[in-house]
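Quick note —
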Amino acid sequence: MNTIKKHALAIAALVLALPAQAEIAVIVNNSGASLSQDEVSQVFLGKNKSVTPMMAEGSASDEFIEKVLSRSPSQFKAYWAKLAFTGGGRPPQTSSASDVVSKVASDANTIGVVDAGAVTGDVKVLFKL
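Predicted structure written out below.
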């Protein structure tokens, strides 16, 4: 019985030690159009140029790339390197989360990906991951 308790405590400690993934928010200007997750994917892959994409630097963008765009961050960079080389467009701009929120709040033609904790009332959240 004592061994079982030790194992249970060890497992609980491991689970608690795992890094918690932050919630990610896809944001637009308060007057911006609502887009589906598929439409957002098209924007960040350069297939829909109706809005300008921006991403916060760091793990939130990496998680967004993996979950929404179904690519690893290195595959995403390679995808955009190929597009840029052939004149197919430029990758989403990256900046600090506060800069992304500020830009989206001031420009109805911009969409952003930030950690949900950076969201203010100045922007509209399309969806969270």
